[in-house]
């Protein structure tokens, strides 16, 4: 366990060292208007091998199936049918920016009833709506589910999630998003991680690349670009030149802790003020050893179970009181704790206590 924490720390050091290099602006910002649009639809999956919805528990499946059959000219009013090879699903997708009619997109299909599996199913033509209620794509195709399920008379086994799957290129774009990108006179660059230093560096890098003042930092998360001042033929040409400009971003000192796996990831700028640390472990052991007491021969009695409990409380030495000098990096603290044999769980508790004492100067994230 200690070896894994040490390797994770080395990986984090190398990762943050990589951030010291220059990175393209396109990997640091989002361009205003250049975004995806979420789509959602409600459809029917057919062709399942008896793993569909129970129509008594999912009446909406029967209603949807009836509507589809009636649109196809099949009259099923008053009929009683209980097929097990159909299931109601939600279909979700993301419409990429500048998608054109006839283009293909991937869709995700998820069961909403009590279907056990969507393996082998086929999605019937399903319209996909955006937030404005209009239809922008239509999805249909064979579902690729990522799980498996089997059951017997007295037990079932399920691997991963067989009630959700994808249809690669299963959606066809039917309507384009109305956005005249070529008519823009200015464009905002939104930083994925707002920071005044990074925004200022982006502004200076863009102005230096064009040789004139074309970019202006509005706040920590926004840089405005004057398209006309760039002298390019169109906004697309201007963005094509801007997005490949290299900038060295600035990162906050941050410590990320995952309590479930005992993983600690930290940056190289994390510092600790002068503080004293003392840590110990308490181990409580409770053991039950019941004793059966039987009556003597020829006695008129019965066997009695006498409970016996042994409880012990041990205190390990742990980490003795130690003083950490000011300005010490967190990497030195973790290396010292690893050398003392401190477990990842105890190390996380120590870091929490140092943060609570106000000696850990970094953003502390616990997951």
- Kindly state the mean pLDDT as a whole number? 78
Cα separation of the termini: 19 Å
Overall shape: it is flat
Extract low-pLDDT stretches: 1-20
Main beta sheet: 6 strands, antiparallel, barrel
Question: What percentage of the residues does DSSP assign to strands (E)?
Answer: 35-45%
* Number of strand elements: 25
Rounded Rg: 32 Å
Which secondary structure elements does this structure contain, and how are they paired or packed?
Layout: H1 2-19, E1 23-24, E2 29-31, E3 37-46, H2 59-71, E4 86-95, E5 104-111, E6 122-129, E7 135-142, E8 144-145, E9 148-151, E10 156-159, E11 164-173, E12 186-191, H3 196-210, E13 215-219, E14 222-226, H4 227-230, H5 235-242, E15 246-247, E16 254-258, E17 263-266, E18 271-272, E19 275-288, E20 291-293, E21 304-306, E22 309-324, E23 328-329, H6 330-339, H7 344-356, E24 360-361, E25 363-366
Parallel strand pairs: 16-25
Antiparallel strand pairs: 1-15, 2-12, 3-4, 3-6, 4-5, 5-11, 6-7, 7-11, 8-11, 9-10, 12-14, 13-14, 16-17, 18-23, 18-24, 19-22, 20-21
Describe the structure in your own words.
The model is unreliable at 1-20 (pLDDT under 50). This protein has 7 helices and 25 strands. The chain has 3 domains: 22-33 and 180-247; 37-173, no CATH class; 254-366, no CATH class. It is flat. The longest helix is centred in the N-terminal third of the chain and has 18 residues, at 2-19. The two termini are 19 Å apart. The chain is α+β, with helices and mostly antiparallel strands and 367 residues long. It has helices at residues 2-19, 59-71, 196-210, 227-230, 235-242, 330-339, 344-356, and strands at 23-24, 29-31, 37-46, 86-95, 104-111, 122-129, 135-142, 144-145, 148-151, 156-159, 164-173, 186-191, 215-219, 222-226, 246-247, 254-258, 263-266, 271-272, 275-288, 291-293, 304-306, 309-324, 328-329, 360-361, 363-366. The strands form 8 sheets. Strands 3-4-5-11-7-6 form a 6-stranded antiparallel barrel. A 4-stranded antiparallel beta sheet has the order 2-12-14-13. A 3-stranded mixed beta sheet has the order 17-16-25. Helix content is 22%, strand content 39%. It holds the Pfam family FlgI. Its main location: other. It is found in: Bacterial flagellum basal body.
